[in-house]
Amino acid sequence: MIFEPNIENKVLALMAKYKKQTDYLEIRLEEKENEGINLNKDGIQKIGSSSRLGGCVRSCYKGGFGFASFCSLEQAESKIQEAISISKLIGVSKTNLAPVPVINDWVKIQPLLNPKDVSLTEKVNLLKSYQEVFEQVKSDRILDYSIRFVQDFHNKLFVNSEGSHIKQEFLAMDFVLGATAFYNGIQTPMQKVFNSTMDFKFCRNKENEIKEICDDAHLFSDAKDMKGCETTVIMDSALSGVFAHEAFGHTSEADLFASSPGGRETLKIGRKFGSEKLNIYDCGDTWNHSGSLKYDDEGVATRNSPLIEKGVLVGRLHSRSTAYDFDEDVTGSARSISYEFPPIVRMRNTCIGKGEDKFEDLVADVKSGIYAVSLRGGFGGENFSFSPLKGYIIRDGKICEPVKNFNITGNLFETLGNIDGITGEEDFETLAASGENGGCGKMEQYPLGVGMTAPRIRISKILVGGN
């Protein structure tokens, strides 16, 4: 709808009418269509769809930003006037935005199998077939399980006073399988999350994964709790990706440490944080990840943004404002969760670069430690704490018995320096965190679709909390 010529022409006419009344003006329109199916052991719990349409205006005058959103196109002109008025009330200095090219583009999705071409009946039947698999493979301890599919189509129209005119189409699909074991009055949940932006076929042929989930839930239902200690930890690729995102990625967002005491000095370009093995980057220009996009919500082209190279800080993530403030290149990292919010500096797909170590060698060198797998929850920043979904004791270079109920806690800068092993490209796994299965939160904007890609990493010394 928002790409219809009459709507685009109206937006362009409003831009032409008001752009000279302020230093900078942008208009965004967005529309979303969502469809979801939930099943559990009792059958279908929910089948639903929703749609929403709205827009927003952002004005900058003498350095002051005014923002207004609307859920009806008839409100667009009055909200433009409101945003301009707010910016003129706030602005007292000079509008400083990093220069960027004027862009005219239409980014279309090209799925291999579009979920719109798969009937609702076929989707429901697929999920019901997985319900039968759960019933066949679950043990007597598995008393509950869940199957969930969500598809989200998202269109965006961006126009600004500099002449950019961008249309972008997005597709996100999430498929979540989970099982919960009950043993001695204690619940032990396990799940796997799958994601695609390209092909509905990604959620087919998951019978083996269902068996693995049920087996893990049964195995860990009577696993011992981990005892707290300082030890060596090997993180699987999913947990390593979360570490890169939560612990380091947020710290790399320029608007956060730009306003923090001593932030610029602590995160000074050229400072060494780890060994030459360590490379971390954030990118939006890779496809089929939850954080993939060609242009951000300021109309800036995304790119691969190196953050750490060979252990040394080389970059950070920027909006146009922070890029000007730091006198650094824009990165295409200004994003918002919806038209109801202005863009702020956010990650896209945060990645740890490949190493050269073999997983077997990393384990063989550990006399006493833990292999931590996947994520249950936690928080990031300079001082972080993660709760892995599951773990295994490493003893004398071998992976041994399972353990659960523990967290990994540390200081970001100390931990980066303690990373002494990184596996190769064959060990990569991408963890998708979209708006439907978690996503990333910052300030009041949650959840935002992001991706996290990493190999396994070994941390020579870190605090593991348990019972």
Compact overview of the structure:
By secondary structure, the protein is an alpha+beta fold.
Notes on the protein architecture:
Helix content is 22%, strand content 41%. It is built from 10 helices and 25 strands. The strands form 5 sheets. Strands 1, 2, 3, 4, 5, 6 and 7 form a 7-stranded mixed β-sheet that branches. It has a 6-stranded mixed β-sheet with strand order 12-11-10-15-24-21. Strand 6 (165-183) and strand 7 (186-196) form a beta hairpin. Helix 3 (120-137) packs across helix 4. The termini are far apart. The mean pLDDT is 93.
Give keywords:
467 residues, seven-stranded mixed beta sheet, PmbA/TldD fold, alpha+beta, six-stranded mixed beta sheet, globular, 2 domains, 10 helices
What structural class do helix, strand and pairing data support? Answer: alpha+beta
* Overall radius of gyration: 24 Å
Mean pLDDT value: 93
Q: Largest sheet, if any?
A: 7 strands, mixed
- The count of helical stretches stands at 10
- Count structural domains: 2
Shape: globular
Q: Care to count the β-strands?
A: 25
Intertermini distance: 56 Å
The percent of residues in helical segments reads: 10-25%
Estimated share of beta-strand residues = 35-45%
* Unreliable parts: none
Task: Give me the secondary-structure topology.
Blueprint: H1 5-18, E1 24-40, E2 43-61, E3 64-70, H2 76-90, E4 104-107, H3 120-137, E5 142-160, E6 165-183, E7 186-196, H4 207-221, E8 224-225, E9 229-235, H5 237-249, H6 254-257, H7 263-266, E10 280-283, E11 305-309, E12 312-313, H8 320-326, E13 334-335, E14 344-345, E15 349-352, H9 359-364, E16 368-379, E17 383-395, E18 398-404, E19 407-411, H10 412-417, E20 419-422, E21 429-433, E22 440-442, E23 445-448, E24 450-454, E25 457-465
Parallel strand pairs: 4-6, 8-18, 9-16, 15-24
Antiparallel strand pairs: 1-2, 1-5, 2-3, 5-6, 6-7, 9-25, 10-11, 10-15, 11-12, 13-14, 16-17, 17-18, 17-19, 19-25, 20-25, 21-24, 22-23
